[in-house]
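Ops channel
N.P.: pipeline sanity check, posting one input/output pair.
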C-alpha cells in the first residue's frame, strides 16, 4: 500500500520525510516523492524509483523547508511513473497532495474540474484532490480578488505566466480558508483516502484527513508529524492519535495540532501510547525483517500466553470479553472472517474451537462473507482477524456483522487501528510491529490467541475441566523453547529448500490441523518466492491434484515436484504415510515434516524436517516455523526480495 508522511516544525523536514518513507518501504511501492513549502513557494521532487534514489535527488536539488509531505506509491490508477508519482499539484502549483487509498468518484470529479478549466497532467485518481482543493479554496477566497486573479491566471496560462502569477505576494488568507477548502473537498470524495495537503500560501501548515485508509498523528519537540504507520514517526513521538473517518487535523509548525470533526467542530481526540521501540521497527542486525520476525516468535508466544491463566483459580482469563457466562452459553455459531494468513489462522481456530467448545465455526474469506448475506443473529459471535486492523475487506465484513446484530471481536496487532473502532471488543495479539509483508510472528500470535480462546470458551461452557485446560496451557508454555530448538536447526531446513528451489510448482499436504499448517506454508512460499504452491487436505490429492506431479522431473531430483507433507505424530499419521507413498510412486520429491524420533518416515524420504513432539492441537504453532524458513530460503535462492515481494502490500486497505 502507499505510504504517506508529513512533518512541520522548527527543523529541516527533509530528514524526517526521507527516513519516514524508508520506514514505510515494507508497504510495497514503485515510486516516491516529497513536497515542501518554503519562503512562500512550494517545491516538489519525485522519482520512479526507491527512496534511496529520492534521497540522492533531494541532495542534488535545492529543495528545502521545515514543512513537508512525502509519499511512496503503490500504483492503483496509472502506471508507475514520475508523472504519476505523488505529491500531485493543482494548476497553480501552490497546492500539493499525497494520498493513500482510492478516490472512487475520481472520474466524475475530474470531468467537472476539467469543465471548470483545470488541467490534469497525471492518470491518477489523487490529482483530482489537488484541483478540488484549488477550486474550493478559490471559491472561499472569493472576496479576495487579488488571489482570485492569481488562481484564475494560473489555470489558463502556461508555465512562465504561472511563475509570474505565483511571484505575486502570497495572499494573507487565513489558514481557516485553507482548512475549510480541504473540509469541503473531503465532503466531495467517496472511497478510501489518507490525505496530506500543503498550500504555498500557508507555509508551516499541513492539513490531513482520512477515510478507511490508516493515518497516525502526533506532536514532538521538533513540531508535528503524521504518517500512514507508526514506524515512520516512532522516533519522534510515542503519543499518537488515530484520526476517525473524515475528521481533519491541522498540523502547525509549533507542534500544535487542531482536530475538526466532519462538521468543522473542534475537538480533543483520544491519545494512544505506543509501547514498542524503534528497534522493533528496525532490522536489529538481521539480513531482513522476515528473519528477524521469525526469530521473535518464541517471545511472541510467551507474550501471547502471559497473564492469560490464573493459577489460583486454575482458570483462563479473557477479561476483555464483555460477554457474560449466559451470553457465552447462548452463542450458537461462530464466524471467523479474515484474509490471507489471518484466514489461515482462522482455519486453525475453527478446528480448536469446535473440538473443545462444540460451537459450530465457519471460517469465511472476508471478501466473500460481506456479499453472501450470511445467517447472523444476536447469538452469533464473529471473530475478525486482521494483523493490520486496516484490511478493507475485513473491515467491511465487520461492519456487516455488526449491522446484523452479531457480537464482533477483533483480533489485531495494531493499537487504535480501524478495526478496533468498528468491533465491539478487541483482543490484541502481542506480536509487536510486523514489517515484512509476509506474516510470520503475527500468524503464530493469532493461532496462540485462538487456541486460548477455544480453551476459554470450553472452560466457560464447562466442557473442559480446569485440569484439562491447565494441562494444555502448561504445554503452551513449552512452545517458546520448542521454537528455539527448531530455529537452531535452520540449516537442515535451508538445505531441503535448496533441493526444491528450481521447481516451478510445489504441493503441500496434511490432515486436520496439519492441513491448516499446509495452507499457510503454501501461501508463505508462493508470496515471497513466486513459486506456484498449493495446499490440499492429503486425502484429497488423489481426487485430482496428484496429476500435478510431473514424472518427467524424476530424472533430475532438482526438477522433481516437491511435495511438503506435514506428517507429525497424530491420529492420521498412518494415513499420511500412505499419501506420501502415493506421491513418491509418481515421482515427487517429498519434504516431510515429522516428529523427532520418527524413524519410519526417514525410510520414505531423505528430506525430513524434524520438530519436537507436541500435542496435535498445538502443532500449527511449531510446524509453521520450518515452513516459514523453508519459504524464505527458496525465495532467497531465487533472488527474491523477502521483505517486499512484488505486487504485494503489508496492509491491503483497498477492496
Ligand atoms: C500474509 O503473509 C500476507 N501478508 C497477507 O495474506 C495478509 O495476511 C492479508 O493481507 C491479511 O492482512 P491482515 O491480517 O492485516 O488483515
Amino acid at each position: 500500500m502507499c505510504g504517506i508522511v508529513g512533518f512541520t516544525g522548527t527543523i529541516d523536514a527533509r530528514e524526517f520525510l526521507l527516513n519516514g518513507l524508508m520506514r514505510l518501504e515494507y508497504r510495497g511501492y514503485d515510486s516516491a516523492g516529497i513536497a515542501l513549502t518554503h519562503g512562500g513557494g512550494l517545491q516538489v521532487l519525485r522519482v520512479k524509483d526507491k527512496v534511496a534514489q529520492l534521497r540522492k535527488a533531494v541532495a542534488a536539488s535545492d529543495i528545502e523547508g521545515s514543512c513537508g509531505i512525502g509519499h511512496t506509491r503503490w500504483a492503483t490508477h496509472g502506471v508507475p511513473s514520475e508523472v504519476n508519482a505523488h505529491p500531485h499539484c493543482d494548476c497553480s502549483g501552490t497546492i500539493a497532495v499525497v494520498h493513500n487509498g482510492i478516490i472512487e468518484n475520481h472520474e466524475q470529479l475530474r470531468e467537472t474540474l476539467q469543465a471548470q478549466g483545470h488541467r490534469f497532467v497525471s492518470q491518477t485518481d489523487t490529482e483530482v484532490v489537488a484541483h478540488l482543493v484549488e477550486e474550493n479554496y478559490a471559491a472561499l477566497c472569493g472576496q479576495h480578488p487579488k488571489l482570485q486573479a492569481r488562481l484564475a491566471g494560473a489555470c489558463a496560462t502556461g508555465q512562465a505566466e504561472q511563475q509570474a502569477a505565483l511571484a505575486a505576494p502570497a495572499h494573507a488568507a487565513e489558514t481557516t480558508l485553507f482548512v475549510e477548502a480541504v473540509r469541503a473537498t473531503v465532503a466531495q470524495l467517496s472511497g478510501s483516502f489518507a490525505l496530506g495537503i500543503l498550500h504555498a500560501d500557508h507555509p508551516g501548515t499541513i492539513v490531513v484527513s482520512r477515510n478507511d485508509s490508516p493515518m497516525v498523528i502526533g506532536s514532538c519537540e521538533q513540531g508535528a508529524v503524521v504518517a500512514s504507520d507508526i514506524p515512520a514517526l516512532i522516533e519522534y513521538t510515542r503519543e499518537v492519535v488515530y484520526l476517525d473517518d473524515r475528521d481533519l487535523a491541522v498540523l502547525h509548525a509549533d507542534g500544535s495540532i487542531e482536530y475538526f470533526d466532519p462538521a468543522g467542530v473542534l475537538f480533543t481526540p483520544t491519545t494512544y501510547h505506543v509501547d514498542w521501540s524503534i528497534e522493533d521497527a528496525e532490522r536489529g542486525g538481521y539480513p531482513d525483517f522476515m528473519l528477524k520476525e521469525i526469530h521473535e516468535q518464541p517471545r511472541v508466544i510467551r507474550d501471547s500466553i502471559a497473564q492469560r491463566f490464573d493459577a489460583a483459580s486454575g482458570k483462563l482469563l479473557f477479561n476483555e470479553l464483555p460477554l457474560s457466562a449466559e451470553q457465552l452459553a447462548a452463542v450458537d455459531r461462530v464466524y471467523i472472517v479474515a484474509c490471507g494468513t489471518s484466514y489461515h489462522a482462522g482455519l486453525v481456530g475453527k478446528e480448536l474451537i469446535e473440538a473443545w467448545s462444540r460451537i459450530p465455526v465457519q471460517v469465511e474469506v472476508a471478501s466473500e462473507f460481506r456479499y453472501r448475506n450470511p445467517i447472523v443473529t444476536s447469538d452469533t459471535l464473529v471473530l475478525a482477524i486482521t494483523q493490520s486492523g486496516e484490511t478493507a475487506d475485513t473491515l467491511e465484513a465487520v461492519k456487516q456483522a455488526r449491522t446484523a446484530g452479531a457480537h464482533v471481536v477483533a483480533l489485531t496487532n495494531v493499537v487504535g487501528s480501524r478495526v478496533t473502532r468498528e468491533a465491539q471488543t478487541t483482543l490484541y495479539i502481542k506480536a509487536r510491529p510486523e514489517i515484512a509483508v509476509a506474516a510470520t510472528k503475527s500468524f503464530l500470535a493469532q493461532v496462540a490467541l485462538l487456541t486460548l480462546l477455544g480453551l476459554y470458551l470450553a472452560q466457560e461452557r464447562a466442557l473442559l475441566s480446569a485440569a484439562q485446560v491447565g494441562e494444555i496451557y502448561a504445554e503452551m508454555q513449552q512452545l517458546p523453547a520448542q521454537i528455539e530448538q527448531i530455529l537452531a536447526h535452520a540449516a537442515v531446513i535451508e538445505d531441503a529448500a535448496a533441493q526444491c528451489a528450481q521447481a516451478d510448482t510445489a504441493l503441500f499436504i496434511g490432515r486436520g490441523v496439519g492441513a491448516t499448517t499446509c495452507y499457510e506454508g503454501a501461501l508463505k512460499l508462493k508470496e515471497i518466492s513466486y513459486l506456484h504452491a498449493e495446499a490440499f487436505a492429503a486425502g484429497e490429492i488423489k481426487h485430482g491434484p496428484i496429476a500435478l506431479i510431473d514424472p518427467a522431473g524424476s530424472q533430475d531430483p532438482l526438477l522433481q515436484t516437491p511435495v511438503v507433507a506435514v506428517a507429525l505424530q497424530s491420529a492420521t499419521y498412518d494415513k499420511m504415510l500412505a499419501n506420501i507413498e502415493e506421491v513418491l510412486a509418481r515421482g515427487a520429491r517429498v519434504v516431510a515434516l515429522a516428529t523427532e524420533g520418527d524413524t519410519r518416515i526417514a525410510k520414505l524420504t531423505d528430506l525430513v524436517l524434524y520438530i519436537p513432539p507436541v500435542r496435535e492441537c498445538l502443532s500449527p504453532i511449531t510446524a509453521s516455523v520450518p515452513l516459514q524458513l523453508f519459504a524464505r530460503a527458496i525465495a532467497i535462492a531465487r533472488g527474491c526480495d523477502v521483505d517486499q515481494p512484488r505486487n504485494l502490500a503489508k496492509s491491503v486497505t483497498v477492496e
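N.P.: looks fine end to end. The radius of gyration is 27 Å.
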